[in-house]
Write a structure and sequence with these properties.
Blueprint: H1 2-71, E1 73-76, E2 79-82, H2 83-93, H3 101-117, H4 121-148, E3 157-160, E4 167-176, E5 188-196, E6 211-214
Antiparallel strand pairs: 1-2, 3-4, 3-6, 4-5
Helix pairs in contact: 1-4, 2-3
């Protein structure tokens, strides 16, 4: 009888240890899965911030270029021509293409400026000044995007322009892991991402030097 009781106690103790091991292993696997999900979410967060930042910066470039187009005029024969009319003509010529409104707008600006700047040094100077204004405005615009996406402003760099005439935004978001005391310690790591805006073809005509800005 004593032997049976001892055997039962041993089996009960073994089962308890087995159950504890199963529960601990389940907790460990859950934390590992949770950390994997968090890594994916933070990486996606950094990617979104970088991509939206680069697109916002590109939008500033086209906005400043459009400001010049809206107010620029040039002599044509005995008359005065307006660059905004050239822009509308180019945009109308793209109406048959399967382009979005924004794509038509950008392409019309590119075609208008590339054609006119090859013949008009004064316009080229005006666009250069516009790009200087854009360069001054871009950091504030990108910083707002980075903050809204909870990425790290201090880790953000803006390259205006890369060798493909695109604006690059490099940023990161912080990943903080969950921990299992005694087995898995908490870690913090910055996950970097790069975003690139659309190509800005008219920049080719300016021979614009590439410049990298560090946000603070």
């Amino acid at each position: 009888m004593k032997r049976l009781r001892k055997l039962y106690q041993d089996e009960s103790g073994g089962m308890s240890l087995l159950m504890m091991a199963v529960v601990f292993f389940g907790i460990l696997m859950f934390v590992l899965l949770l950390n994997f999900i968090k890594v994916f979410a933070v990486d996606n967060q950094a990617n979104t911030a970088a991509q939206q930042g680069s697109l916002a910066a590109t939008g500033v470039v086209y906005k400043q270029a459009m400001n010049v187009i809206e107010h620029y005029s040039y002599p044509c024969g005995d008359d005065i021509c307006y660059l905004i009319d050239d822009y509308h003509a180019e945009k109308s010529s793209l109406s048959g293409d399967s382009l979005s409104e924004n794509e038509r707008h950008r392409k019309a600006i590119d075609k208008t400026l590339l054609y006119r700047m090859s013949r008009d040094a004064r316009l080229k100077r005006q666009i250069r000044l516009a790009m200087q204004r854009a360069t001054a405005e871009i950091p504030g615009v990108v910083k707002n995007v980075i903050r809204k996406n909870n990425a790290k402003v201090s880790d953000t760099k803006i390259k205006i322009f890369n060798n493909k005439n695109r604006i690059e935004v490099i940023t990161s978001a912080e990943f903080e892991s969950s921990e299992v005391p005694g087995f898995m310690r908490k870690m913090k790591e910055d996950l970097p991402q790069i975003g690139m805006g659309v190509e800005v073809p008219f920049i080719r005509a300016l021979n614009w030097p590439s410049r990298t800005l560090q946000l603070r």
